[in-house]
Amino acid sequence: QQPVQSPQAVILREGEDAVINCSSSKALYSVHWYRQKHGEAPVFLMILLKGGEQKGHDKISASFNEKKQQSSLYLTASQLSYSGTYFCASGGGNEKLTFGTGTRLTIIP
Amino acid sequence: DVKVTQSSRYLVKRTGEKVFLECVQDMDHENMFWYRQDPGLGLRLIYFSYDVKMKEKGDIPEGYSVSREKKERFSLILESASTNQTSMYLCASSYFYGYTFGSGTRLTVV
């Protein structure tokens, strides 16, 4: 079952914050986050495995709620380099991932 | 860094042709995957493999087959290409956490 992402698209000015949500109707084994820049391959950002987990690096972080049905990606003080399409993906125990439909993030100067 | 290489960046094929898309990874990963990416639909899993000569169907396997004769190579085969298989095809490999994707093959079937 494909995770649902919201919003589908967002436009921000440099320095603003963004939140991208990813939800599922059933508990997920894990959630991955990827970023894809235009014309490039998706790049792995992070994985969350445990309910209640939060992790991040630099100004990009993510959380996984206690029931493991929702994850959010937080981008703070956005930079031009953050532009791209962000995908969440739900993982089974066998590494197979089901990707969400993506959120297109555009950062303008 | 893990490198996943897809043999062609762009391909144009005729309807009915048999098409081979090749993918090679250089980090001894056991898991390899083929996805197609279409606007508004995200990435959809076609086939995946956990080991040599092993394959499993993903969500949209119809019209495709795969081959994994060596651990580092995973091939996607379009038995008889059709226009609805025009898409971006992405190969990926993984070991426990996180996928590494190849740069993709944009296939156009005319």
The H-level CATH homologous superfamily of chain B, spelled out, is Immunoglobulins
CATH architecture descriptor of chain A: Sandwich
Order of helices and strands of chain B: EEEEEEEEEEEE
Question: Could you report the average pLDDT of chain A, rounded to the nearest whole number?
Answer: 90
Distance between the termini of chain A: 37 Å
> C-alpha Rg of chain B, in Å?
13 Å
Largest interface: A-B, 20 and 24 residues
Give the count of helical stretches of chain A.
0
The main sheet of chain B comes to: 7 strands, mixed
Number of E-state strands of chain A: 11
Shape of chain B: globular
Q: What does the largest sheet of chain A look like?
A: 6 strands, mixed
Q: Count all strands of chain B and give the number.
A: 12
What is the fourth-level CATH superfamily of chain A? Immunoglobulins
Low-pLDDT segments, ≥5 res of chain B: none
CATH topology of chain A: Immunoglobulin-like
**Rg of chain A (CA only):** 13 Å
- In what range is the share of β-strand residues of chain A? over 45%
Q: Count of helices of chain B?
A: 0
Strand content of chain B: over 45%
- Oligomer class: heterodimer
Describe the structure.
The complex is a heterodimer of chains A (109) and B (110). By secondary structure, chain A is mainly beta. Chain A has one domain: Immunoglobulin-like. In chain A, 0% of the residues lie in helices and 54% in strands. Chain A is built from no helices and eleven strands. In chain A, strands 2, 4, 5, 9, 10 and 11 form a six-stranded mixed sheet that branches. A five-stranded antiparallel sheet of chain A has the order 1-3-8-7-6, with no helix packed on it. In chain A, a hairpin with a 6-residue loop joins β4 and β5. Chain B is an all-beta fold and 110 residues long. Chain B has a single domain, classed as Immunoglobulins (Immunoglobulin-like). Helices cover 0% and strands 55% of the residues of chain B. Chain B contains no helices and twelve strands. In chain B, strands 2, 5, 6, 7, 10, 11 and 12 form a seven-stranded mixed sheet that branches. In chain B, a hairpin with a 4-residue loop joins β10 and β11. The termini of chain B are far apart. The mean pLDDT of chain B is 93. The interface between A and B is medium-sized, with 20 and 24 residues.
